[in-house]
Amino acid sequence: MTAPSTRTVADAAVLTPAPGGVARPRTRRLRVTQLDPWSVAKMSFLLSLAVAIITVVSLLLLWLVLQAGGVFTSLNQAIVDIVGQSSNNITRYFDFGTVLGVCLGLAALDVVLVTAIGTLFALIYNLAASFVGGVQITLSDE
């Protein structure tokens, strides 16, 4: 996902035959000691942009289903029956333009915040990895 800087800690067996003549898979133990903040920023931007697009499309589809089902009209009629006045029309607050504007604004805010938080995480990880040595992972070609 990101462009980590890796350093080999220990090398494992390279296809050494096990008893019975069957070769074992190769494994490598690596340590991720640094994350490039610019790579993390680009990846978190792209992923948050994809989530924002999915969110906008799904919310608008939900609005269309609710509108087609007459939910807003029924809700407005229930409010009129309870309050007794027809001065407040709920469809004025939940029209397509208002829902689209709020949804796009929240999606844009999400993209900015997730990108900034991802980059900040990379910087904090680099600082912590300089003290403890990073995260050790084992890769295998099974």
Q: Can you characterise this structure?
A:
- Helices cover 58% and strands 16% of the residues.
- By secondary structure, the chain is of the alpha+beta class.
- It has one domain (4-140).
- A 3-stranded antiparallel β-sheet has the order 1-2-3.
- It starts with a strand and ends with a strand.
User: Which whole number gives the mean pLDDT?
Assistant: 84
Main β-sheet, spatial strand arrangement: 1-2-3
What level of helicity do the residues show? 55-70%
Largest sheet: 3 strands, antiparallel
Shape descriptor reads elongated
Strand content: 15-25%
Instruction: Kindly give the count of domains.
Output: 1
Residue stretches low in confidence (pLDDT < 50, at least 5 long) are 6-14
Overall number of strands: 3
User: Helix/strand/pairing class, anyone?
Assistant: alpha+beta
Q: What value does the Rg take, in angstroms? A: 27 Å
Terminus-to-terminus distance? 21 Å
Number of helices: 3
Q: Write the element-wise H/E pattern from the N-terminal end onward.
A: EEHHHE
Structure in a nutshell:
With 142 residues, the chain is an alpha+beta fold.
Summary tags:
142 residues, alpha+beta, three-stranded antiparallel beta sheet, 3 helices, 3 strands
How are the SSEs placed, and which strands pair?
Elements: E1 4-11, E2 27-35, H1 37-68, H2 71-83, H3 96-132, E3 135-140
Antiparallel strand pairs: 1-2, 2-3
Helix pairs in contact: 1-3
